[in-house]
Automatic annotation (TrEMBL):
<feature type="transmembrane region" description="Helical">
    <location>
        <begin position="12"/>
        <end position="35"/>
    </location>
</feature>
<dbReference type="InterPro" id="IPR006598">
    <property type="entry name" value="CAP10"/>
</dbReference>
<dbReference type="InterPro" id="IPR051091">
    <property type="entry name" value="O-Glucosyltr/Glycosyltrsf_90"/>
</dbReference>
<feature type="domain" description="Glycosyl transferase CAP10">
    <location>
        <begin position="292"/>
        <end position="601"/>
    </location>
</feature>
<protein>
    <submittedName>
        <fullName>Lipopolysaccharide-modifying protein</fullName>
    </submittedName>
</protein>
<keyword id="KW-1133">Transmembrane helix</keyword>
<keyword id="KW-0812">Transmembrane</keyword>
<dbReference type="Pfam" id="PF05686">
    <property type="entry name" value="Glyco_transf_90"/>
</dbReference>
<keyword id="KW-0472">Membrane</keyword>
Length: 647
């Protein structure tokens, strides 16, 4: 905030304000038809807005695979941003083209809500449609019965909406309280419904592959665009939860616990028979080709890198959630459960995590605690507790966080070699498979556990394994250029803050969240393999590697060498920040939840095939003029100024 003006400078500012006002006034008088609104603006006001400064510099002119991946990501991103609808007419037409249905009842009001809250993209909600798709194969009354029956089920809390209000319920807890608050902001737009909220960290619904395929086939047959669809929900439907009534008994969710068991033993039934999880003939090398670059092993398909049907065989015994989850209560039935995240084999309905709605200082970004890129350290930073799965003296090596802390530990890595790419001159790269990373990690990594947690009988077996480090809050973390985000028990709540920050987020995960389709790997963040076998390849690319810095090696003096790509890292960090300010705001969470509950409201409506918005969108032409869309995201990279002769 601007403080009061210093007393002695007041006259100066008064004169300045008068001058600026009269210039504006003169402009207004004489130039109104020749100028646009942008002229009537005080200089440098954008200093006080949240926009991201341009990044000045040039991409390295070389053939590194990461350069290709960034260019490809930008190409896809441009197609995405240029392809967005910028009017209600176009939005409804696009909805019908994409899903073969009318938008749900109340879509017009949702659109106005989203536009007033400055949604940048009103098309990108396919996660919602995708999550709900199989339920088109289940009769609406049956879904309502299930949701009603689940209201007080194990690990579930219910939210009931009646007459545009949330019904008071004796159940509380931070998740359900947060959810109620969020829904309260939009409840006036929603029909009566029961929501079954998962209050466990882990996702719950895992339908076998063949059954899901059958549901999806049925869904495709139910698509239609009736021209006389009613833009309203059906009032007074039965089978909503009623205290004391007996519908609960008709629905048995058949929960069973797989806590502590190998997740893939169950998950593979939900995979395509041709996928690596169910096809023993595929080797790890075959699988790697599905999502890693042939040179360097960088993630080329982030969705596949977190798809358990693809990476499950390799990761099944190397990730806490898959190896020894502390709790995991699932069902094989298709039932409507709302969860904050899921893995690729789940049928849970995703909503924006409650964590993001909390004003928790551990997860909320504040730009006052951030630094400019040039003032940040060339460091990769991670802090966390030993969460992920139940740990015993002889199993913790199978946990993902423990593996990460190991692979970044310079003492442990002193005698190990890893594979990286090394520059051969003229901008070409080749694999250098015997890099000793000890010194590099000593110089650049600041990684460690802050405490041990979740061990049986206690965590004393870690006493000689780790050195616990001091926790760092965001203001400390943002001093590092590179911030790693890896899973805990579940998805990681820090990711939004990392995306908003001026540091570069590097992410490895198996969890899916509401925002996945809007975050482009290699444009908004750097994807990392859950095995971390690309970690040193990534970090030597960004930080560079000087031949002198490598350990003495009698056979190679020049190699390995890589120029640094600090500029590339800064560009991705700036692009992520700018985009997060448009697409990961609190408003965006509300906008997502609102549309999700409209879609859910339709799918549980007995009349669902004949309701929806069937107009052409022209009613909102005037509205669209009043609330123009924000301009396309501009290119943040500016070339450096030309060199002068003397230089
Ligand atoms: C694996 O290979 C064997 C022998 O070639 C073949 O009989 C079998 O059908 C293959 N399995 C799958 C799942 O493709
Ligand atoms: C990426 O992987 C996903 C999941 O395995 C797959 O559906 C998709 O087609 C792949 N994308 C590309 C471009 O190969
Ligand atoms: C932790 O467990 C070990 C092995 O069972 C035991 O010897 C030790 O006393 C325990 N330590 C604490 C602090 O309870
Ligand atoms: C790194 O490994 C060494 C040797 O195992 C261990 O003593 C040290 O505590 C580890 N460092 C951290 C930060 O965990």
């Amino acid at each position: 905030m601007l403080g009061p003006f210093p007393r002695n400078r007041r006259p100066f500012y008064l004169v300045l304000v008068c001058a600026v006002s009269s210039i504006c006034f003169i402009n207004l008088l004489f130039l109104t038809y020749a100028i646009d609104n942008s002229v009537i603006r005080l200089p440098n006001l954008n200093l006080f807005t949240a926009t991201t400064n341009p990044v000045i510099g040039e991409y390295a002119n070389d053939e590194h695979p990461i350069g290709h991946l960034m260019r490809e990501a930008n190409r896809q991103w441009l197609a995405y941003d240029n392809g967005r609808s910028t009017s209600f007419r176009r939005t409804v037409a696009k909805y019908r083209e994409t899903y073969g249905r009318h938008p749900p009842p109340g879509f017009k009001e949702w659109y106005m809500f989203a536009r007033k809250k400055k949604a940048h993209n009103v098309d990108d909600f396919q996660q919602i449609t995708g999550d709900l798709r199989p339920f088109w194969a289940v009769p609406p009354a049956e879904i309502r019965q299930m949701a009603a029956g689940l209201q007080f089920s194990d690990g579930i809390a219910g939210v009931q909406i009646r007459n545009k209000k949330i019904v008071n319920s004796p159940v509380d807890g931070w998740r359900i309280d947060t959810m109620r608050k969020s829904i309260n902001r939009i409840v006036q737009y929603l029909p009566d419904m029961d929501i079954a909220l998962n209050i466990m960290d882990q996702p719950r619904v895992m339908v076998p592959f063949e059954a899901t395929q059958e549901y999806l086939r049925t869904e495709a047959l139910t698509r239609s665009l009736p021209s006389d669809a009613q833009d309203g929900f059906t009032p007074g439907m039965d089978y909503l939860y009623k205290k004391g009534s007996s519908i609960e008994e008709h629905v048995n969710p058949s929960w069973f616990s797989i806590a502590g068991k190998l997740y893939m033993d169950f998950a593979k039934e939900s995979c395509d028979p041709h996928s690596p999880a169910r096809n023993d003939n595929l080797t790890i090398e075959d699988t790697d080709k599905l999502y890693k670059s042939p040179s360097g092993g960088f993630v080329t398909n982030f969705t596949a890198s977190s798809d358990l049907c693809t990476v499950g065989p390799v990761l099944g015994e190397n990730h806490g959630f898959l190896f020894s989850a502390s709790s995991n209560l699932i069902t094989r039935k298709l039932i409507p459960v709302f969860s904050e995240c899921k893995v690729s084999v789940n049928n849970d309905i995703i909503f924006p995590a409650n964590m993001y709605f909390l004003d928790d200082k551990r997860y909320v970004y504040n730009s006052r605690h951030d630094y400019e890129w040039k003032d940040k350290a060339d460091t990769l930073l991670w802090r966390g507790v030993t969460s992920g799965g139940v740990q015993l003296a002889d199993n913790w090596q199978h946990m993902h966080r423990q593996r990460f802390v190991h692979v970044t530990n310079n003492t442990e890595m002193r005698s190990e070699t890893v594979s990286i790419l090394s520059e051969t001159g003229s901008g070409q790269y080749r694999t250098y498979s015997s890099f000793y990373p000890g010194k590099f990690s000593l110089d650049h990594f600041d990684v460690g556990f802050i405490e041990a947690w979740g061990c049986i009988p206690n965590c004393s077996f870690y006493d000689d394994v780790w050195t616990y480090k001091k926790p760092k809050d965001f203001s400390e973390q943002f001093k590092a250029k590179y911030l790693v985000d890896i899973d805990g028990h579940s998805f990681s709540g820090r990711w939004r803050a990392f995306q908003l920050s001026k540091s570069l987020g590097i992410k490895a995960t198996i969890f899916r969240e509401w925002h996945d389709s809007r975050l482009f790997p290699w444009r908004h963040f750097v994807p990392m393999d859950n095995r971390y076998d690309d970690l040193y390849g990534l970090m030597t690319y960004f930080l560079g590697l000087d031949p002198q810095a490598s350990p003495v090696d009698a056979f190679s003096v020049i190699e390995p060498y890589i120029q640094n790509h600090d500029f590339e890292a800064e560009v991705i960090a700036a692009q992520s920040r700018e985009w997060a300010q448009h697409a990961l705001r609190n408003e965006d969470l509300d906008i997502y939840l609102y549309l999700l509950l409209l879609e859910y409201g339709r799918i549980i409506d007995d009349n669902r095939d004949n309701i929806g918005y069937s107009g052409d969108g022209s009613e909102l032409d005037h509205f669209d003029d009043q609330y123009p869309f924000s301009p396309a995201i501009r290119d943040i990279v500016n070339p450096p100024p030309p060199l002068t002769d003397e230089q």
